[in-house]
UniProtKB/TrEMBL annotation:
<protein>
    <submittedName>
        <fullName>LacI family transcriptional regulator</fullName>
    </submittedName>
</protein>
<feature type="region of interest" description="Disordered">
    <location>
        <begin position="183"/>
        <end position="208"/>
    </location>
</feature>
<keyword id="KW-0238">DNA-binding</keyword>
<dbReference type="GO" id="GO:0003700">
    <property type="term" value="F:DNA-binding transcription factor activity"/>
</dbReference>
<feature type="domain" description="HTH lacI-type">
    <location>
        <begin position="2"/>
        <end position="56"/>
    </location>
</feature>
<dbReference type="InterPro" id="IPR010982">
    <property type="entry name" value="Lambda_DNA-bd_dom_sf"/>
</dbReference>
<dbReference type="Pfam" id="PF00356">
    <property type="entry name" value="LacI"/>
</dbReference>
<keyword id="KW-0805">Transcription regulation</keyword>
<dbReference type="GO" id="GO:0000976">
    <property type="term" value="F:transcription cis-regulatory region binding"/>
</dbReference>
<keyword id="KW-0804">Transcription</keyword>
<dbReference type="Pfam" id="PF00532">
    <property type="entry name" value="Peripla_BP_1"/>
</dbReference>
<dbReference type="InterPro" id="IPR001761">
    <property type="entry name" value="Peripla_BP/Lac1_sug-bd_dom"/>
</dbReference>
<dbReference type="InterPro" id="IPR000843">
    <property type="entry name" value="HTH_LacI"/>
</dbReference>
<dbReference type="InterPro" id="IPR028082">
    <property type="entry name" value="Peripla_BP_I"/>
</dbReference>
Amino acid sequence: MATMLDVSIRAGVSKATVSRVLNGTGQVKESTRQQVFKAMEELGYRPNFLARSLANQTSNSIGLVVSTFDGFYFGRLLQQASRQTEAWGKQLIVTDGHDTPEREEEAVQMLADRQCDAIILYTRHMSEKAIMSLINSIAMPLVVINRDVAQARERCVFFEQQEAAFPGRGVSDYPGPPRYRLHHRPDAYPYRPGSPAGLPQRADKTWY
């Protein structure tokens, strides 16, 4: 069975560097990280995550809660989240909130109980009060995506969809023949509930 020392010799780096790559800590060049991952694959090395977690007091996992698994949008979100966490030597634990605020909150609590290093939350239904309660009650960082939570903006990642989708010169109300028409599909492309006007309000506008 291959060991961390075997990986370091094959990759031509120190054992400490292999450890930093596996733990996602310290400054390691991307080329060096790829050397380590290649050596691990060639040797069939499988790190003991439980032992590492006990030694480092970290789970090396990132939790992700989404409202639902349905739709192209969430499929791409999960794909990119998985790729990024793997690139940093972390494990992604994903669960969905079954499109209800209660289940979304339960999902966050479940990931917190599993001692994830951080939790990413995509919620369609939870109130700002409920989100703030979670932020203040769980021990690990909670990052909220696609929502603008006024009291925790430093923890939010969101996209101003209305401004991006409807630039002033690109939309017309005139009744002439359209070249492109925007159709809102909340099941596939959910919009941010906190948006002042929201995308559906202007979904009948014509692009030209």
